Amino acid sequence: MRRASIYLALVLLVAVSVVPFLWMVATSLKHGQDIYTKVPSLLPLDRRTGAWAATLENYAYVLQVGGLGRAFLNSAWVCLVLVPAKLLVDALAAYAFARIRFPGRDTLFVVLLGGMMVPAVTLLIPRLHVTQALGMFDSGWGLILPNVASVLDIFLLRQFFLSIPAELEEAALIDGAGRMQIFWRVVLPLSTPVLSVVTITSFLFHWNDLVWPLVVLNDPDLYTLPLALQQLVASPDGGRAYYVMAGATLAVLPVIGVLLVFQRRILQGIAFTGLKS
């Protein structure tokens, strides 16, 4: 009886999570006249005959007229450039805080952690001023360079680097390896789980980021997917439910694909990040 109750609760939780997604996909495949019916349906059926009436016209509209095709490419370009650069910068900083002794190291690390307590919204104006001063306002680089480092990712990577036995690095030093050789050939190969987590979470965050592109971009040709989707919702014709759901489905598909493919890596990285040597 207890096990049955647990299974029932799990089924209800899954339904709460999955049904809205199925509703979104079904609505994106419906004609306008088939959306608002007396009896709601998760299937794209004709409201008069009940026959299958799925259509891809909504996707064609949002990709061409709604501008989501160009925005999709913009988001892909930003993520492909930003995520590897961010991973490299964060890993180098984390390794320095974990293994290299220099004056003020621990104090600087505490200051960085303290900066995480500052609400991100309060930093928008200073970041915008710096971006404008560097000539990157309303450009793709204005999306990339201000986000090329993350204190949270540095913290996660540092904690994992501390769990790697120092004896491995000492052996490499005895063999004549330098710091960068140790970093590339010893530390990084052993850090695949946490590197996977940082890569995936960074991709998900920047793929879905709306606030910073909204602040730094004016040119519609540079809009990322969340910003283009927001503009689609606000437009007179594009704001119709079937267009919005088609755009939302396109936006969420890469996220679902990444989570399905790398979910095991995510769980392994979360588990390993907290381990101590």
Can you characterise this structure?
Its main location: membrane. Belongs to the binding-protein-dependent transport system permease family. It comes from Nonomuraea roseoviolacea subsp. carminata. InterPro entries: MetI-like, MetI-like_sf. It is a multi-pass membrane protein. This protein has helices at about 1-30, 55-65, 70-100, 105-115, 125-135, 140-145, 150-165, 165-175, 180-190, 190-210, 210-215, 225-235, 240-275. It is mainly alpha-helical. About 70% of the residues lie in helices and about 0% in strands. The chain has 13 helices and no strands. It has two domains: about 1-55, no CATH class; about 70-225 and about 245-275, MetI-like fold. α8 (about 165-175) packs antiparallel against α9 (about 180-190) and α10 packs antiparallel against α13 (about 240-275).
